[in-house]
Amino acid sequence: MSNAAAIAISDRKPTSAILPSRGGIIGALSDLFWRRPRLLLFLMLAPPVLWLGIVYLGSLFALLLQSFFSIDEFSGLINRELTLKTYGELFLPANLDIIIRTVTMAAIVTIASAIIAFPIAYYAARFARGKWKALFYLGIMLPLWSSYLVKIYAWKLILAKEGILTWLFEKLHLMWLIDAWLSIPVVGGNSLSVSATGTFIVFVYVWLPFMVLPVQAALERVPGSLIEASSDLGASPAQTFRNVLFPLALPGIVAGSIFTFSLTLGDYIIPQIIGTSRLFIGQAVYAHQGTAGNIPLAAAFTVVPIVVMGFYLWGAKRMGAFDAL
Amino acid sequence: MRSDRQQSAPLGLKIAAAAGLLFLHLPLLLIFVYAFTTEEKSYQWPPPGLTTQWFAVAWNRPDVWQALTLSVQVAAISTAIALVLGTLCAAAVSQTKFFGRETISLLVILPIALPGIITGIALRSAFNLAEIPFSFWTIILGHATFCVVVVYNNAVARFRRMSGSLIEASMDLGADGFQTFRHVILPNIGTALLAGGMLAFALSFDEVIVTTFTAGQQQTLPIWMLEELVRPRQRPVTNVVAMVVVLVTLLPILAAYYLTRDGDQIAGGGK
């Protein structure tokens, strides 16, 4: 790259300038940066690196450190001796239950988002042209950037017992369908807005745009001639999908799943507003750091998504998902 | 070569794509209807009647105005900080190669890649350890941290498309570093920065998870919304506020889209 070369490989002494330099302190500074590009680089990098390094990484390390502390059960005070006891508590049945519930939800939400996102992304990538392309793009970007809380609120309106969904199903005389679904133990509940199904729908809704964008990016790179060649060679649409389209879209799906998975793992507001009283990791963290004052256990809980995501990213990287971002 | 022959999509694909887009948009449209409902005790559908009185009620609520003002202030200051830090970082990463470049990109993306609750609780416990009282500025500290990435992403994309020969030409013609920045680099990256800034503003304006951990008694608009969601007190006012929030976040997104849309035609981009 020529621009990189221009600045990076400029250690050689500049010969006499054709024009006199501007002089003054600005000119002197400019000359100095020209002669010492590393200094300029250092000055450019220092503010963002210091900010993120101190404010963000510093806080993260402080949090990690606290996960190795423990809490005294009788006094409720934090014992600042390094121990793995708090991590042990994660494996108590109640806590393990929370972790499994959250990871399962994240996995199902990811799969559902991929299924719903694929047709949108495929249509936008292959068939939409000109004005329609722009419309599709905005159609994804607007919900993506709309207020998170407003989106949840919209679903509170929809899923409420007196809300539009009940009304619609009553008009269609299909109310028995919802009632039957709600009577299933794990996924059901008193009404959709206080059931695991409701939580699932809202998760899918809120994270769906994060899945569409990378899948679309991956599909944009699939040449149309490849699909045509596949059908010319006698493959049925289903075979073309399975053997050509899907493998090529997979890095995009994995890239999108990084978002849907990670965001579901850490969220505590959606299950709090629409869902059952059974906790998710985020809610457990919130509860432990808040009223309970058990910062070490809260910190240990936050390590779970970090570890899960670490493995996930490692696997995704091996599948080449980062090229699709 | 992509075939130029115009094909039409299979019907099933059309229906699935349309259904997906409807799923994304109908809930937001519903908010607009609810803002006009006369029902104030429940979320009844269809609305028993339509009225505009709740707009006046919401307009006269001091708590809504306070929350809105605080949100705008926080978003403005966080965006300003993010613009400076993000641009510096993008310039350094895209213009030069140095040891640890990948690490820096990762560092910038990390605050948004990790779940918000981790950023939030990490900051909160750090403030507690350092005995920093929660204030307006602790909120900004948190928001600016995750806003950097949006500015950075936009600026990096533009820097990559900008031809390095432009900078060389400017230098060859006798401009010093600052002149080159002012007259060559800035006009080229300007719209990308504006777009990044708008998205950062929207991100901060809407952020709730990190804010719940870094705010003391202050109520930003999302915190106010959250309170209403958990313990609904005055549903009609919430409906109106929700509708206004949708409209307000719509504008920066549309503007950012139009600003970066023609990005491919940036001078020197055809290289």
Automatic annotation (TrEMBL), chain A:
Keywords, alphabetical? Cell membrane, Membrane, Transmembrane, Transmembrane helix, Transport
Q: Which InterPro entries match?
A: MetI-like (IPR000515), MetI-like_sf (IPR035906)
Sequence intervals crossing the membrane: 39-65, 98-122, 134-154, 174-193, 200-219, 248-270, 291-315
- Chief subcellular site? membrane
Q: Where is the ABC transmembrane type-1 domain?
A: 99-313
Q: How does it sit in the membrane?
A: Multi-pass membrane protein
Superkingdom of origin: Bacteria
Q: Which GO terms describe its biological process?
A: transmembrane transport
* Compartment(s) where it occurs, according to its Swiss-Prot or TrEMBL record: Cell membrane
Gene3D superfamilies per record: MetI-like
**GO CC terms on record?**
plasma membrane
PANTHER family in UniProt = INNER MEMBRANE ABC TRANSPORTER PERMEASE PROTEIN YDCU-RELATED (PTHR42929:SF1), INNER MEMBRANE ABC TRANSPORTER PERMEASE PROTEIN YDCU-RELATED-RELATED (PTHR42929)
Which family would the database say this protein is a member of? Belongs to the binding-protein-dependent transport system permease family. CysTW subfamily.
What name does this protein carry? ABC transporter permease
UniProtKB/TrEMBL annotation, chain B:
Cellular location(s): Cell membrane
Locate the transmembrane regions by residue number: 12-36, 70-92, 104-122, 134-152, 240-259
Family recorded in the similarity comment: Belongs to the binding-protein-dependent transport system permease family. CysTW subfamily.
Q: Matching CDD domains, A to Z?
A: TM_PBP2 (cd06261)
Q: Which domain of life is it from?
A: Bacteria
InterPro entries the record matches? Bact_Polyamine_Transport, MetI-like, MetI-like_sf
- Please verify whether the record's keywords include Transmembrane: yes
What is the official name of this protein in its record? ABC transporter permease
Q: Where is the ABC transmembrane type-1 domain?
A: 68-256
Q: Which biological process, per GO, is one annotated for this protein?
A: transmembrane transport
One GO cellular component this record assigns the protein to is:
plasma membrane
Protein's membrane topology? Multi-pass membrane protein
Q: Name the UniProt key words of this record, in alphabetical order.
A: Cell membrane, Membrane, Transmembrane, Transmembrane helix, Transport
